[in-house]
Amino acid sequence: MNSIFEINFISIICMLFSYLLGSIPIGYIIFRIKKKDDIRNYGSGNIGATNVNRLIGKKFAAFTLFFDLFKSLICCYLSNEMLGNEIAKLCGFLCILGHIYPIWLKFRGGKGVASFIGYLSFISWPLALIFIFIWFVTVKLFKISAIGAVTSLIFNIMLFKFLLFIQFNYSSFLWIPGEPLDFYFILITTIIILFRHKNNLKSILK
Fold first, then answer.
1. Which helix (H) or strand (E) holds 142?
2. Which among 104, 72, 94 has a CA at the least distance from the CA of 11?
3. Which positions of the chain have pLDDT values less than 70?
4. What is the pTM of this model?
């Protein structure tokens, strides 16, 4: 099993593959094929499933959602099989970075929420389900996807930290990540995604 401190040629290939797979802007591609235009010029300006749904419908949005979610999950599982758990988490993180800052779109990508859910599913699927539940309830209440994303992200990282504290001090939950590294990967990813929502938050607060 490779540590993130033991990077070799295969690890570099997996990390590069993860970033490039994450960089595939499927929402942008679908909209470009269907409308011959740049989706970033319409709606929220985002390339993710919410904007795709708003502009060209649920069928295309569902495909975008599943592609963005599963690309990070695939990166994690493939690299885990080849190189071990720690490198897998790094590859999942790089996949999300690729989605948010894709080289193909001059680093102007999506917000990374769907890819984050896929990544979180690899680390702890119950936490991923809780994230989805909080997002769904919040969106139902406020009718704004960005509020759902921000609320879910903040709640999730707080819950994550609390459960790790419980695990280390009182009990052991098999489905809860047992390493501080898991928390730090999720924390950094959460901060980046929240930063990508800054314009949404400004609009909501006005």
1. helix 125-142
2. 94
3. 1-7, 168-178, 206
4. 0.90
